Amino acid sequence: MINGFGIEASSHKYGLFQHICASLEIVTADGELVKCSKDENSELYYAIPWSYGSLGFLVCAEIKNCTV
Fold it and tell me: Helix, strand or coil for residue 51?
């Protein structure tokens, strides 16, 4: 869901799935582990949700809790 469009049943209420991701970690094609967030490697952070895995292999996602 993070590497695709991030659309699911409650997107109309809470926004796209990637909006609740505080940070992401990927392993790039050259084997580098890269952590990204809104403040750190932000270009990569905003590109990952639409990449379908083409930027690297997603290994970790820090998810914020939503109050329902």
Answer: coil
* CA gap 48, 28 in Å, rounded: 11
> Is 43 in a helix, a strand, or coil?
helix
Mean pLDDT of 3-28: 72
Question: Does residue 58 fall inside a structural domain?
Answer: yes
Instruction: Name the average pLDDT for the chain.
Output: 82
CATH of residue 35: 3.30.465.10
Q: With respect to residue 6, please indicate whether it lies within any of the assigned structural domains.
A: no
Please name every residue paired with 24 in a beta bridge, in sequence order, or none if there are none.
Answer: 36, 61
Q: Within 10 A of 32 (CB to CB), how many other CB atoms are there? A: 9
